[in-house]
Backbone:
DNA sequence: CCCTGATTCGC
DNA sequence: GCGAATCAGG
């Protein structure tokens, strides 16, 4: 099997959907899981959380969080103009923060003088230094204001797609209706027969007729064709 | 052992 | 470019 444009598109789509490489390989057919992964990488598709790489997440973010503070300003050894450094360091400016702004973490920012309870008009002076790029630095221990959670939304039951609106879905099955599958799982119109089941059987009368064949006398049976290999493996 | 994705490397 | 072999975590 070769990677035709059509197959590549399907690979991209399923990869984007988050399907596993094996699932994609199964669906495409003719390729291995490895082939799918290899192709995805060659295409430059987003890498996915890998069980192997996940272990590295622990040290990296912590280091990344600490590093920018040091890297944001020019390394001292690289700045020959000491006056420039002084200018940067002395460019701290007062910033007026409304009291109503979300408070910093409790343990943080001793500089923020506690306002008296009930005094909602009190503002607090916080000195902030301005970084080389013009951004306002956070003070040590300060935390970015928490992002307010999105307002809760009312959940509405999803409407079934029109194709299966009047079809019997998996969730509607019980022991009185026919569970004969029509179509194939995963296809948009996959559903079950839904007729009244033959009592004591999982299928309706018609499908029982398909599922259960009367046993023929031995002489009338055709021997099954020989299997192309040694037969199913027995463990 | 099964699964997963990442990487390597001979073709 | 391809993918089997291999690695390594869950």
Residues:
């Amino acid at each position: 099997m070769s990677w035709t444009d059509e197959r590549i598109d399907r690979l991209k789509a399923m990869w984007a959907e988050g399907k596993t490489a094996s699932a994609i390989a199964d669906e495409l057919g003719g390729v291995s899981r490895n082939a799918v992964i290899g192709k995805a990488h060659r295409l430059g598709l987003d890498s996915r959380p890998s069980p192997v790489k996940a272990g590295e997440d622990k040290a990296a973010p912590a280091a990344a969080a600490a590093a920018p503070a040091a890297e944001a300003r020019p390394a001292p050894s690289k700045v020959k103009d000491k006056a420039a450094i002084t200018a940067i360091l002395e460019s701290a400016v007062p910033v007026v923060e409304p009291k109503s702004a979300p408070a910093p973490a409790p343990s943080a920012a001793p500089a923020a003088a506690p306002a008296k309870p009930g005094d909602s008009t009190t503002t607090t002076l916080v000195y902030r230094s301005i970084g080389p790029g013009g951004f306002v630095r956070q003070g040590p221990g300060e935390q970015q204001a928490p992002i307010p959670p999105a307002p809760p939304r009312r959940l509405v039951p999803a409407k079934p797609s029109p194709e299966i609106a009047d079809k019997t879905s998996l969730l509607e099955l019980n022991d009185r209706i026919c569970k004969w599958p029509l179509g194939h799982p995963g296809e948009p119109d996959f559903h079950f027969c839904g007729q009244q089941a033959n009592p004591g059987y999982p299928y309706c009368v018609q499908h029982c007729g398909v599922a259960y064949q009367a046993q023929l006398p031995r002489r009338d049976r055709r021997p099954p064709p020989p299997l192309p290999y040694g037969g199913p493996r027995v463990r």
In short: Helices of chain A lie at 5-17, 21-28, 33-42, 59-72, 82-89, 205-211. The two ends of chain A are 32 Å apart (CA to CA). Chain A is about 25% helix and 5% strand. The mean pLDDT of chain A is 63.
